[in-house]
Design goal:
The protein has 14 helices and eleven strands. With about 325 residues, the chain is of the alpha/beta class. Strands 2-1-3-6-5-7 form a six-stranded mixed beta sheet. Strands 4-11-8 form a three-stranded mixed beta sheet. Strand 5 and strand 6 form a beta hairpin. Helix 3 packs parallel to helix 14 and helix 6 packs antiparallel against helix 8.
Length: about 325
């Protein structure tokens, strides 16, 4: 795949991302790399030095602490199934996975301080957990930091190799702008952002409502990228299931999917997919039944992953 290294992409960070995704694969196309089993003559780049160690699998972490009785349109079992599907998907792309929980967050010295602020601000159980993940990740002692994604975020082109390429740059990196669905940061920058979150969150904070997403947006709007240690702030994720309609026909959006690192199958976008008839067909699910569909996001995600590999590798 030929890449013009001198083309202007709008920002230096965007140029670095595109080069990481494209020029790293000079022996073949990105899809050849995403689907290596279909290209047996392709080989990984030799003498990999894209991380401090240069070897071994990168780790993708997520955070999961069940909300008693379920939440967001899903039962506890539905959420647990989604976590399992998340683990399977990332491992199939060459990653190791790690699921953090409340106990990891409680190891942070400022956990009780944050929890008191969240209680005073009347933040619900689900959104409290979204804050906890920042503390859990901050307790990672690896100075090189690490990756974190939502457990409803599934890889499309973000193989382990691409992950190493993107992780090579220091600083705090968000691949979905203020939506913290896919992040990588070194240890120092992660702690800078986490501490600012704890310092800033308040029942009187001027945001739409208090969540880690809106707080991250608030920090980005009130601090410079240098203050936050941000080296990349991009939108390279697909919102929802990558299906589109052409009249009555439904097709997989390969053009959009192959231009994104992964797909964020959020409960918001999953509801939209059900209402628009773009939710993958899951056996045993009643058409039009929102609750049944939402509770089968794990199965739908697995169908999406298979369809991507089968359809977009051609």
């Amino acid at each position: 795949m030929k890449t013009d290294r001198n083309a202007s992409l709008g920002t230096k960070t965007k140029a670095r991302i595109v080069l990481a995704l494209l020029t790293a694969f000079t022996a073949g196309s990105l899809l050849d790399y995403v689907f290596p089993e279909q290209q047996p003559t392709r080989r990984l780049l030799e003498n990999d030095k894209t991380t401090p160690t240069g070897h071994g699998k990168p780790i993708m972490a997520t955070f999961f602490e069940p909300v008693i009785g379920g939440c967001c349109g899903m039962t506890e079992e539905g959420h647990q199934n989604l976590v399992k599907a998340w683990e399977s998907a990332w491992q199939s792309y060459g990653w190791e996975t790690k699921v953090l929980n409340e106990e990891d967050a409680k190891k942070h010295p400022r956990f009780k301080e944050l929890e008191q602020k969240l209680i005073e601000a009347d933040v619900n159980g689900y959104n409290q957990r979204c804050f906890w993940r920042w503390l859990a990740m901050a307790m990672d002692t690896d100075l090189n930091g690490g990756w974190m994604s939502d457990y409803d975020f599934f890889p499309l082109t973000l193989t382990a190799k691409v992950g190493k390429e993107l992780a090579a740059n220091p600083g705090f990196k968000s691949w979905s702008s203020h939506v913290p669905t896919l992040l990588h940061s070194d240890h120092h920058s992660w702690n800078v952002v986490t501490d600012l979150m704890i310092d800033t969150v308040s029942k009187d904070l001027d945001v739409e409502f208090i969540s880690d997403m809106y707080l991250l947006k608030y920090l980005y709007e009130h601090y410079s990228e240098a203050d936050l240690g941000i080296s990349s702030w991009e939108m390279l994720t697909y919102s929802g299931f990558p299906y589109k309609k052409d009249g009555d026909d439904i097709y997989f959006d390969c053009a959009g999917a192959t231009a994104r690192l992964g797909a964020h199958l959020s409960h918001h976008d999953s509801r939209k997919a059900v209402n628009n008839g773009l939710f993958p067909k899951v056996e045993g699910v009643t058409e039009g039944n929102l609750g049944e569909h939402m509770n089968k996001r794990a199965e739908a995600a697995s169908i999406m992953m298979r369809t991507f590999k089968q359809t977009c590798s051609q």
